């Protein structure tokens, strides 16, 4: 074991089993953090079922394999983030890391990872819904920290909050997204949140404003139909479902609700 008095002495650490100690508290914290990340990385990678990879070639990597690798990378990122957010970690290192992420447009990477998880939520894959949505929110928060003007980050965070039945909080995120970029999909999300939260009049008002700009907005028309259904106005709901079906294809759930409206009209 070797003891170092300054940064240049790190060159004496030629053996992988050696541990370097610094007089500088900051340098020692950095060294310890690197060691921690390395050790945790080894532990996570050791959990991989390498037998399952033996018969695979790169061209045959399936969606589940990519998801597994993505999750491992995500776990490593979380460990690193926990270290960087620690009160004991030097502030100038945290700021340097944030500046580097801005320069590399890392907010886009966080958003892509969040989107991937949202896709998995909507697939037939068995996932922990609560845990996955929480992770999506965390990834969006990281993107926002790097780039507060990333409209998509607020939008995806809002969708994850909707999945957790946190509609007022979701609407706040959607409004933040709209303050950066006007997008009908975000207005639709706000209206949908209002419907799910029981604020039917607000929802109808928003759908109507969207339709004033685009009278053939399938999502707005279907949204109105579902809102009228939630209100118990089956006649209006059926009318809107009919309009929507003439523009696009209704999903199975909407078709069942439409049939119920026709039976009760």
From TrEMBL:
The record's section on Pfam families has: TPR_17, TPR_19
Q: Which UniProt keywords apply?
A: Repeat, TPR repeat
List, alphabetically, the InterPro entries matched: TPR-like_helical_dom_sf, TPR_rpt, Ycf3/AcsC/BcsC/TPR_MFPF
Q: Which domain of life is it from?
A: Archaea
Annotated SUPFAM superfamilies = TPR-like
Q: Where are the TPR repeats?
A: 151-184
Q: Which PANTHER family match?
A: CELLULOSE SYNTHASE OPERON PROTEIN C, TPR REPEAT-CONTAINING PROTEIN MJ0263
Name under which the protein is recorded: Photosystem I assembly protein Ycf3
